[in-house]
Design a protein that fits this description.
single chain; alpha+beta; Helix Hairpins; 3 domains; 4-stranded antiparallel sheet; two-stranded antiparallel ribbon; about 10% strand; disordered N terminus
Amino acid sequence: MKLQTKLMAWTCSTLTLGLVATLTVYGFWETQGLKERVEGDLTSKGEALIISATKGLEAMTNDHIRNGVKLPDGSTVGGTQLTQMLFDDELTLIPESKLEADKRYKPTDKVKRFDGVEIPMAQYEYKYMSKADPYTDTYWQQYIDAFMGDPDVVFALPTKYSPDPAKTGFIPTHNSFYSPTDPEKSRDNWGAIGLLSQKYRANRIFNDLAGGAATANENRDKPQKTVYERKIDGRTVTMWDMSYPIYIDGKHWGGFRISISKERADQLIAARTNQLIWKLSIVAIVSLIGLAGTTILIISLIIVRPIHAMVEVSKKLAQGDFTHAIDVRQDDEVGLLGRAFNHMIENVRSLVDSIMQSSRQVAQLTQNLQAAAIQTANATEEIAHAVQEVSSGAMEQERETEQTASLVRKMTSQLVTLTSTAQEVAQSSSSAFRRAGEGQQSITRAIEQMGVIHDTVSGTAQVMQSLGSRSADISRIVEVITAIADQTNLLALNAAIEAARAGDHGRGFSVVAEEVRKLAEQSRHSAQEIARLVEAVQTESVRAVSSVDSGTKSVEAGLQVMQEAGHAFKEILGSVHDVEAKMQTILAAVQQIAGEETAVMQAVDRISHIAQNNNASSRSIAFSSQEQTATMEEIAATTEVLAKMANSLDDLVCKFILNKEYEARRLN
């Protein structure tokens, strides 16, 4: 007994030390790899989360650009206007925020931007307003809040890129937790609340090394990870910053950042380490119990000697006779072994009896299973036939979808031609509108010139009429001159006669009288010539006055015609303007139809793809149905084999003798 005790103690100690050493080495190795796995899991989760968040934000914003969205003031914004709002670099400093931030830091507190420029620390808490605030504070903040339900995420925010390093990293909005507006929740240590509070982290510019790198990054192959330390609530915390570029309307806007605290990783590592310790403890306890049992069994086998009675019973057991048992009377180890051997015989007897009953049940269940397999095979064949019909319908649907896609492509080509023609017509309308405007200006100038001509001709007519009256006056004067000349000529003749009568004394006067007569004759001839000229002038004046009157009437008619032409050009200009506006409307409608046709084409392509997938799925289901039919046939064949095995098992079990009554029934 002493030797047995020593041997048992030595064996237990050796196995226990080996188990402890094994568990210690395994625990150390598992703990070392646990940190890398946890950090890798969080990194993978952060990368997947940042990609999903960025693409979701891009999809929502691009949809608002295409379809428009209502702002809190009731106005609707979209298209180019919304795009310009989002990309506008103009920031307006809130003066009150500067006053509050300057209270919190010393002038000597400095920090370096991502480009190496040193700036006052207080600038990180200056708040700015941008043109996109009504949109981002409404829709982007709601979107970002959805990601804060994840316990691993510390914050999520977008940062805007700008060519100006001083504006790069602007945060237009933040999740609600980091931009509280409630007076109690937002009150900071200096008493500031709302937008001016230090707790309100939106509307600021984060252009430190991490913020600048995340904002300027344009590589979408893989999220960018940055590890840095940051103070949160007075504690220095190591942060994992995941960032991914944001593209809006096809242009780089900035970056989306999600931060995961290393404390979360440490918590997960600690929790999993505790789980590992519990698991190793349970394994150690169970292993020690198993080792103790194994040790006892081994020692028992070593110290037990062959017992003749047990050998004899064992021989009968080998023959299948379980009606015998060992007569145990002593209380030592051998006695314990004998009792255990008898107990084993009882258990085996019960086991064989259970096997006999189970084999009969298995045979019965096998028959039921075989019938069910046949029914399932028949049902599978019907399913396969139905799937073939579905596959035929899917193929027909695929062909119809291809035809529809072909028609849509033809319509696309025609829409392109129509768009080009509409653009040409719109350009022609614009050119006609410009030409009509120029024509109207020319008509206006012609009307003004015709007015000047009308005034000039009217003045000329008045002058000609005055000239006619003056010519009549000249005729009267010429008549007077002619009468005077005739009278002078008559007087000269009389003077010559009187001079002749006077003889030598009147000879000198006769010469003078002759000269006077000649002058009178010349005056009469000149007066007659003037009369003829005046008459000719009067005739021409009458004709000129008549011509001027005709010209005046023509000018008045031309002026009326030019005025009517000017009115007509105004109407033409209005009509051309209406045509141009309508052509622009038609062109916009055609372009909209062309844009919607692209969506229709994409929808048809998706339907075609779905039809192809349905067809492929139908073929796959048909193939699976065929495989299932074959499988059910194999199951049916297997059940036949199983039934035979159950019958064979029952025959084998019947060879065992469990008791005298059973043996009598078996022999009968």
